[in-house]
Amino acid sequence: MKKLKQLLILFTLLVTLFMPVSQIKAADNEGAATNSSQTTDDSLQKVKDKGTLVVGLSADYPPYEFTAKVDGKTKYVGIDIDLAKQFAKDMGVKLVIKNMNFDSLLVALETHKVDAVISGMNPTTERQKSVDFSNIYYTGGKYIVINKKDKTKYTTKDSFSGQTVGAQNGTLEYSLIQKQMDGAKVKGLAKLNNLILALQSGKVAGVLMEEATAKAYVQNNSNLYAFNSKVKVNTNETGTAIAFPKGSASLVAAANKTIADVKKADLIDQQYVPNAAQYMQTASKQNTMLNYWTYFAKGLEYTLLITVVAVFFGFILGVLLALMRLSNGKILHSLAVAYIEFIRGTPLMVQVMFVYFGVGAIIQSLPALVAGIIAVSLNSAAYVAEVIRSGIESIAIGQTEAARSLGLSQKQTYQYVVIPQAIKNIWPALGNEFITLIKESSIVSVIGVGDLMYQTQLVQSATYKGVMPLFITMLIYFVVTFTLSKVLNYFEGKMKHA
């Protein structure tokens, strides 16, 4: 009971420490909002001054935005990409693309990780409360994609009563299923290609999406069929628009000018859509997995980089936390306990997103890769600390007493007697943590880090295949972890005979 009380007091102190930061930030935001009404908006000038337009999107939404392999390199293509290029050109700046999950885009916008979101986004009334939208630049209906063998079974939106219908998380389609498809259950996933995979494996009966995207998938997959859902959509919400941070009047005006010019020249129908169709046809002809080996290689490179760096820093911090927890100092002990329990009590995905979007809102130049490494390192440290602590406590007290009686200091005792024996005892557990970290690092794909899982999703969207890229990724993970297990077992055997 006494320890619980101490932990509660410590947690209150930690919250108190962070409260002033949030209050100052809130006050700054409030002041900024007040001042913005009194001064001229400078959002456009800021983009011009830094020389880049950072656009957030989810590149799994053909023909709006998707990836294609051009000269062995990944290239973002589609209607939205061409529009983004024109928008950046009109402002005289360089276009920078940040690819992430659709349901993370508005968070990235509000935390200023991106300047704009151009991702087939509908300007719903709910979204307009949080962000500003440009004029609508493209309009299409809502179609339902089903397996072709079910085309006689599902003919209208009312046919799905008692069935599960899929939609991307955070989209208008998700709420439309809930509101207008009576009796149907909604299944939300972050990536559209995963929804198509769920459709083909029978997990959902249909997937609701934009007309152009539905036709794109059907055109490239003979096993799929699409029809007009005829769901009722507010006129202001039927099209797609560019999203900006709240109060970005000058950026919105610049975007509206670009959109007006694009519409006047009929570039979307005459140029952007044909370009997208050409890339889609090329992808369908070259959609063998062998053609995308560079994607998997690049993803593996990032995965190993994240793992090695995270293991290094996680081990150092873990040793420090273990010693703090074993110390007689109440403050150090309590801090270590609070950190370890908090990290182990929260999901790694939440930690990754907090570091990138939360801390990244203060340090806006924080790259996604660095944020991912920091989050994975901090998470690993908590588990490593417990492994090391258990190893140290497993050493008989007589070992320590004998070392001290021979004149060794406490530091020397730990350095030459306790730690070497503890490492031998905990080596298998440390090895397991290393292997687990390789697999768990796939979480960083949610913030757009190009690890193995991220590259797998790119291959899925580029080839319109769901199962095969996942199977190859599974094999790669298995080969890496199996090889590492053998190496760790080798060194474990060496320790036993030392």
UniProtKB/TrEMBL annotation:
It is found in: Cell membrane. GO terms for cellular component: ATP-binding cassette (ABC) transporter complex. It comes from the Bacteria. InterPro entries: AA_ABC_transptr_permease_3TM, ArtM/GltK/GlnP/TcyL/YhdX-like, MetI-like, MetI-like_sf, Solute-binding_3/MltF_N. Keywords: Amino-acid transport, Cell membrane, Membrane, Signal, Transmembrane, Transmembrane helix, Transport. Belongs to the binding-protein-dependent transport system permease family. HisMQ subfamily. This is Amino acid ABC superfamily ATP binding cassette transporter, membrane protein. The lineage of its organism: Bacteria, Bacillati, Bacillota, Bacilli, Lactobacillales.
